[in-house]
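User: I need a structural model of ABC-2 type transporter transmembrane domain-containing protein from Aegilops tauschii subsp. strangulata for a docking pre-check later this week. Nothing fancy, just the predicted structure tokens so I can convert them on my end. Input:
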Amino acid sequence: VILTNIVYEKQKKLRIMMKMHGLGDLPYWTISYCYFILLSMLYLLSFMVFGTVFGFTFFRLNSYGVQFVFYFAYMSLQISFAFLMATCFSNVRTAAVIGYFYVFGSGLIADYFFKPYIEDIFISRSWIILLELFPPFSLYRIVYEFSQSASLVSQIDRTGMQWSDLNDPKNGMTSVLTIMVLEWILFLLLSLYLDHFGSFQSGIRRAVLLLHSRRAGNRSQSSQQQTTQIQEFKASVEMER
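Assistant: Understood. Predicted structure tokens for ABC-2 type transporter transmembrane domain-containing protein:
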């Protein structure tokens, strides 16, 4: 939804119309981000409320604060990732098809490919962290750990996922949260960069041209200063004569 909305505005030239009316890039991205984050929070709160009302242990037994923080972090990451992907598309249908394939395909891949790595105790944790750099795998790890904590409540005398459990290196929740926050910031910066320059090459070219223009400006200023100093010196010599 986020991806198609942004690409739709690009395809229908709505961004150009907004710029013509004085809306800059930074206010546009700020307004868009706030809109999508509010929409995501409403969806998130509804999801948690209905899950609790219908008695799902996944929601009731785990700490609501922990759930909200992790879901909110992933929603923010999802929005920034959609912003980044929107810079690669100019057609709404193409973006919608790729988006649906990404959502359903990543879920299937995570269940059949990533889950065995989590459950295998002989797999290096570093390798799992590397796989969690892919955002859907981070979400799958969150859901997996929450479901495991809720299922253990009925088996042993313990509570679900609490804040103190984040310090447990076995569940890997702290590393997942760190990855999501870092990727969220990185994707936002890349989105702003690509939206402004169009590509990495054009951005580098503009930076090089800017440096050359500044150097040329400094040289012209220094030459002008030298000429003015020479003229002042000549004028002072003539006055002494």
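Before docking, keep this in mind: The radius of gyration is 27 Å.
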